[in-house]
Amino acid sequence: MEFVEKCVMEVKAGEINQYVHIVEAFQAPIFRYCSRMLGNRQEAEDAVQDILVKGFEKIGMYEPSGSFSSWLYKIAHNHCLNLLRKRSVQHKFQSWFRQNTVAESAEQTITSRLFGEPLASAITSLSAEERSLLILRALEEKSFAEIGEISGKSTEAVKKKYGRLKVKLQRLMEQKGGAGYDAKERHYSSR
């Protein structure tokens, strides 16, 4: 990631054409994160565009004391949480006027097929912040320190929250009719 940090410094110094390298480096991972958080491909594509634009607009505020990756993921994290909050308000408002059920999105169907119904159902029962923590740790393979930087929490708080999250996920899966989460936890160093 030294190349990315070099590009960031060049963009901050006025060489804005170097931002294209940052976009190339982060477009796919940020899309994966947004797609998993939002559960909708089109919303995720739009979110990535917004996040990369925000990153460009606010790059002057980036301080190299932390990694640029964590800084950009923090923007993505906050952006997705805001979108999910807006979606929640919209769904509540819409439910006042119609009582029919909404069809499952293609991403929700794929999640159900990939992870099995109990796990997919349990994941959708998590809060947006819990889902973000799970995605960042298990799928994006971020360290607890990086997740802390992204979420604005201490490393120890993230570790504790993740431990509670695993227990909650196990309980939810058992309630949803699953045999329980027997797969071994992937262990990562606290990089």
From TrEMBL:
Domain annotation RNA polymerase sigma-70 region: ranges: 23-88
Keyword annotations from UniProtKB, A to Z: DNA-binding, Sigma factor, Transcription, Transcription regulation
Annotated ranges, domain RNA polymerase sigma factor 70 region 4 type: 119-169
Coiled-coil parts of chain: none
Protein's GO biological process: DNA-templated transcription initiation
Gene Ontology molecular function: DNA binding; sigma factor activity
Family membership: Belongs to the sigma-70 factor family. ECF subfamily.
NCBIfam families: sigma70-ECF
Name recorded for this polypeptide: Sigma-70 family RNA polymerase sigma factor
Species of origin: Paenibacillus woosongensis
Organism ancestry: Bacteria, Bacillati, Bacillota, Bacilli, Bacillales
